[in-house]
Amino acid sequence: MSKTNAGRFFEDYALGEVIRHAVPRTLAEGERALYHALYPARHALHSSDAFAGACGLDGSPLDDLITFHVVFGKTVPDISLNAVANLGYAEGRWLKPVYPGDTLSAESEVIGLKQNSNGTSGLVYVRTTGRDQTGEPVLDYVRWVMVRKGNLEAPAPDTTIPDLAKVVAPEDLVIPDGLSFADYDFTAAGEPHRWGDYAKGEVIDHVDGSTIEEAEHMLATRLWQNTAKVHFDATFREDGKRLIYGGHVISMARALSFNGLANAQMLVAINGGAHANPCFAGDTLRAWTEVLDAAPLTDDIGALRLRLVAVKGPEALAGDLKGEDGRYLPHVLLDLDYWALMPR
Amino acid sequence: MSKTNAGRFFEDYALGEVIRHAVPRTLAEGERALYHALYPARHALHSSDAFAGACGLDGSPLDDLITFHVVFGKTVPDISLNAVANLGYAEGRWLKPVYPGDTLSAESEVIGLKQNSNGTSGLVYVRTTGRDQTGEPVLDYVRWVMVRKGNLEAPAPDTTIPDLAKVVAPEDLVIPDGLSFADYDFTAAGEPHRWGDYAKGEVIDHVDGSTIEEAEHMLATRLWQNTAKVHFDATFREDGKRLIYGGHVISMARALSFNGLANAQMLVAINGGAHANPCFAGDTLRAWTEVLDAAPLTDDIGALRLRLVAVKGPEALAGDLKGEDGRYLPHVLLDLDYWALMPR
Amino acid sequence: MSKTNAGRFFEDYALGEVIRHAVPRTLAEGERALYHALYPARHALHSSDAFAGACGLDGSPLDDLITFHVVFGKTVPDISLNAVANLGYAEGRWLKPVYPGDTLSAESEVIGLKQNSNGTSGLVYVRTTGRDQTGEPVLDYVRWVMVRKGNLEAPAPDTTIPDLAKVVAPEDLVIPDGLSFADYDFTAAGEPHRWGDYAKGEVIDHVDGSTIEEAEHMLATRLWQNTAKVHFDATFREDGKRLIYGGHVISMARALSFNGLANAQMLVAINGGAHANPCFAGDTLRAWTEVLDAAPLTDDIGALRLRLVAVKGPEALAGDLKGEDGRYLPHVLLDLDYWALMPR
C-alpha cells in the first residue's frame, strides 16, 4: 500500500518550501468545448476567434477559469488532500491568456503556517503559480487551507501568517498584450453596457437558474484533474452525498453573470473568496453581482471590482449574506470578489 | 436589474427588422467529439476525414445539426425567450458545410407578424441566416413562434403572414462544392442501400432506443449556447421538470436513423417540423422514418425527402401520429420533414 | 424493416472470413478532453505534449484505451450485437500510438467457431485489427463471444478453437518508435517509483472510489460509437437497468490506478480479461493491482505485467476474487491482465 499517495499532513509542510506539482497538462479545443457544455458560458472573447482577434488577441483564449481550475487541480494532491477546509483566496492574478495548445504546470510555495491551538490541525498558506510551456507565469494566487496533523506528536512550527492584500491594486492588474477594446462590437458581445454604465453599489440579479446534476460536476472536476475523493465517491461521506467542487460553483455563477455583465470579458484578479456553504447535486444555483469598485486602466479598458454571489433555492434574491452570528446564511454558496476587464 | 435582458415581447418586433444576434462562436474538434458523445451519430462523412476526403470534401465537416443548433441557439435570447410555443419551421436549407475552425454568427429578419385575437400574444415569423467568418451563409431557415405581449395596450401590427413553401424544391437544394459519391465506399459507410433502393412510402423502424438523462440534454443545450430557462432550471415549471430542447430530440432521432439510413449522409433542407409533445429526462426515445419523395440531383447524388418521427415509450411503433381530433398522440415527440443526400 | 442491421447470428460466421467494420473515425483533441472528463486519467504521457516530447514522442498520444474502445466499438455491429456474453480477450497488443488527427478503422478475422452442445448458440473467436489512415496496424487483439443462432436448423460448423497465448511474451511487446525514459521526470509524472521498485506479488490498493452515473457511461460508450442496445435503453432489460459497457469499467479502473502506478505510462498488451459481473449506475468502483511479472525491455524501459481488479461496494478490499465454486464473487467487476511500460 506504500506506493500510493496519502497526501501531506500539517507537519509535512515547511515554510519557504516550493512544491512542484505533478502532471503537466496540454489544453486544447476539447477543453473549450466541454467548458461550453458544462457552463452557460457566452462571453464573446472566449467564444469567437474573430471577436477576440478584433480585440487584438491571437484568437480566442480559453476561459480564464479553465486556467484557474487546471492550476488549482494540480495542487490538490499536495495541498488539500487532507484539508479539512478551504479557507480563503487572496492576491490572485491572471498574468497571461492561455490558448489551445498551451501546456500548464504549477508549483506552490509555502508562505505561512500556524498550528491550531487544539494541536490537531493547522493553517497552511501557499502561493501557487501556474506556468505555460515557456515557463512564463499565467496565474498566481494565494490560498490557505486547514490541514489535519498526521502525527499529533510532531512539534508545532513557528507561526507565520503572510501579510495579504485585501484587494489587488488596479495598478497591479495585468492587461494581456495587445488587448484593446477600441473597436469593441457591443452587438456581437450581447449587451450595450460599458464600464462607465456601472455604478458602485449597483446590484445585478443574473436572473437565470441552473439545477446541477452529479454527472456534470464530476465531469468538470475530473477535467481539471482534481482528485479529491469527496467529489466522486458517494460512499465517502456519511450522508452519501458528493460535495461539489467549489470551482464548479464559481464557473456556473460566472457564466450565469453573462446576463447583465456580458461585457465583463476577462477576469484579471481574485481579491478574495469564500465557499460559503456546500453545494450538492439537485441544488438550483442562481447568482447576483454587486459592483464594488471601478478603475480606468487604459483609454478603452476599465476594470470593475465585482462581488459575485451564488445562492441556491428558488428564492435566491439579493439580500443579507450573513446572519446575526456573522456566519453565511445556509442558501449562500459562494461569495467571490474579483476584478474584470470591460470596454470603457 | 435593468442591465439584464428580459427578452423581446410581441410588440417589440417590427416587420422587416433585421436582428443581429449576439456571441459569434468558433467551432472546433471539441464540438465534434461532444456531438459523438451526446448522440449515437455514426454517419461516416461526419466521422472520418478520410471518408469525407474520398467524397471530395476537405476533411470531415461538423454534423449538419451542429450548424443548426448553434445558429438556433444564437436566436434564442432575441426570438424565443418569451415564446409560448415554437410553432414551425419552413424553407430550411444548408448552404455550405461547416468545418472545425469556422466561426458562426446569425441574424434574423422579421418576415411576418400576426397578433392573436385574444390580444395577449402574437405570431412572429423570422428568417434566420447563419454565416461563417467570411460572411457566407451556411444555413437559412424560417421559424415562427408565439410570443407573449409585454404591454397589452400596445397596438396590434398589420397582419403579414409570409408565403412559405411546403417543401423545398429539389432544384433549390445546395450540393456542397466538390461533393461526389462516385467512389463511395458502402462498406465503410455501414450499409449497402443506395438512393434507388428506397421507395416512396417505405417505412424504416430504426430499432434502437435511447433513454435520456438530465445531464445529457443540459450539456447539449448549453453547448449550443441556448439559454432558455426551461431547459436548465428545475424550479421554473410547476411540475419540477426540465423541458428538453427540441433540437436534442432532433439530433437523437437523426443519429438513431443511421440504422437503415446510414447512407443519408448530409442534411440539405428542412421542409417543416413539429415538436409534437414535450420530452423529459427518463423518456426512452425511438425513431422511424417514412420515405416521402426522391429526387435525382447529379449522376451520383440523389436526394431523399424523409419524414423522421421520434416517439417515446416502449411500444413506439410506426402508426398513427395524430388522433381523431387532429392532435399529435401523446407518445409522439417529433415530426420532421427533411431532405438528405445519398449516393445513387 | 429490411434496411436495418439485425446483427449476425452464429451461423453467419465462417472460419477465415475477414469482416471489414464500418465507419472509420477521425480522433482529435475533443476525444482527449472527453476522456479526461469521463475518467480521472492523469498519466503524464497522455496529458502533456511537453512530457511526451521529453520521452521521445511527437507530442502526447491519445490514451491507449481510446484506441482500444474505438476499435472495439467498430466491431460491435458485426460481432456482438447478438452476443449473449463477451467471454474473453487474448493476445492484445498496442502496435503504434494514436495521435489527434489520426483516423482509425477496424477489421476482424474469424479464427475460431464452436457450436454449443445445446445447438442454440456458439462461440465465435475473432482477431480484430485496428489501423490508422496509413493502413498501419495500431492495435491487434483476440476476443471471443457467445452468439445466438438465428436459424436453429443451420448446420453446425466444424469446431476450431484457436491456440491462444496465455500471456503476450515480453519479446513481442512493441515499444513505440522513439520512446525513451532516459530523461524521465518523476516529479512531473507524480510518483518516484521505478520499474525496479515493484515486486512480483505486490498488491497496490488504488485508494480512490468513483460512483458511476448513467449519463457518464452513456456519453463514454457513444463516444466510441458502440451501439449495443443494452447500454442505452432502459426498457431493454426486464429490470429497467442499463448495463455499463465493460470498457467503461476498464478505463475507470486504469485511471484510478494512477495512484500507485503513475509511472505505468503506456499499455502495450492485454493478456486476458474478464468482465466478472455487470456494473450499473450507482455502483461505486474501486480498483487494486497485483504485480504478476516484470520484464526489462531496454536500458531505460521495463514492462510490468499487472492484474487490474475493479470491485464495487464500500468494502472493496483486495482478497479472494472467486468463491469456492470457482465463480467470481458478486462484488468483482473486472479482472484484467495487461503489460505496461515504465521507466527503469
Describe the structure.
The structure is a homotrimer of 344-residue chains. Chain A has 344 residues and is of the alpha+beta class. The first copy, chain A, has one domain: Thiol Ester Dehydrase, Chain A (Roll), CATH 3.10.129.10. In chain A, 18% of the residues lie in helices and 31% in strands. In chain A, strands 1, 2, 3, 4, 5, 6, 7, 8, 9, 10, 11 and 12 form a 12-stranded antiparallel beta sheet that branches. In chain A, α1 (29-38) packs antiparallel against α5 (214-223). The longest helix of chain A has 16 residues, at 64-79. In chain A, 56% of the residues are buried. The mean pLDDT of chain A is 95. The A-C interface holds A 1, 3-5, 20, 22-26, 28-31, 33-34, 77, 100-101, 103, 105, 133, 213-215, 218-220, 222-223, 225, 227, 229, 232-236, 242 and C 28-34, 36-40, 42, 44, 47-51, 59-60, 100, 187-191, 193, 197-198, 203-211, 213-216, 219, 259-262, 282, 284, 314.
The CATH class of chain A is Alpha Beta
Return the average pLDDT of chain A rounded to an integer: 95
What portion of the residues of chain A fall into strands of 2 or more residues? Answer: 25-35%
The CATH topology label of chain A is Thiol Ester Dehydrase, Chain A
Q: Biggest interface in this structure?
A: A-C, 39 and 51 residues
| Total number of strands of chain A | 12
Shape verdict of chain A:
globular
**Count of DSSP-assigned helices of chain A:** 7
Mind telling me the CATH superfamily name of chain A?
Answer: Hotdog Thioesterase
Helix content of chain A: 10-25%
Provide the number of structural domains of chain A: 1
N-to-C span of chain A: 58 Å
Provide the structure class of chain A: alpha+beta
| SSE pattern of chain A | EEHHHEEEEHEEHHHEEEE
Unreliable stretches of chain A: none
Can you summarize the main beta sheet of chain A?
12 strands, antiparallel
Oligomerization: homotrimer
CATH architecture of chain A: Roll
Rg of chain A is 20 Å
